[in-house]
Design goal:
single chain, about 150 residues, alpha+beta, Aminopeptidase, four-stranded antiparallel β-sheet, three-stranded antiparallel β-sheet, 4 helices, 7 strands, globular
Length: about 150
């Protein structure tokens, strides 16, 4: 697929259902496991819990949500790209914005089973700093750090 022009914008609740559908679909395909929370609980998490500690940005093509990232100065909490739009630079665009607004160091976790995410983060300068099971899915995960200094 060729480079597609996406627009990065701050999250707006009018995109909640679309964002959660994209997030759930992408996650389920990445970890081969159904989402454990109800759709309504996931929307509540996106609108009410996540924004307490994290800035949320969306990648839009037209009015279609094709990606999302939740982050603060030192951590990326969520990064999902619609599976039809992976590999064309949208994740990199979101990541570059977060790196530019970071404290100079970022950490994140990804599921060990999600090899595509691991390759993506390693390609963009992240290194493995830990392994564990610190997730509701109780799947092995990997902690990555980006520290360019």
């Amino acid at each position: 697929m060729n480079q597609v022009k996406s627009i990065i914008t701050q999250y707006n609740p009018k995109y909640a259902e679309q964002t959660v559908r994209m997030w759930r679909d992408s996650k389920e395909q990445a970890i081969y496991q159904r989402e454990i929370h109800s759709f309504e609980d996931h929307v509540y998490f996106l609108n009410c819990i996540l924004p307490e500690q994290f800035q949320i940005d969306l990648a839009l093509i037209g009015e279609k949500v094709v990606g999302m990232i939740a982050y603060n100065a030192s951590e990326i909490n969520q990064l999902y790209i619609h599976t039809d739009y992976q590999g064309i630079g949208i994740g990199q665009t979101l990541l570059d914005k977060v790196k530019a607004h970071s404290s100079g160091r970022l950490t994140l976790r990804t599921f060990e089973i999600n090899k595509n995410a691991q390759r993506f983060y390693e390609k963009h300068g992240f290194e493995i700093i830990g392994r564990g099971h610190e997730n509701e899915e109780n799947l092995p995960d990997i902690q990555f750090e980006w520290n360019p200094n």
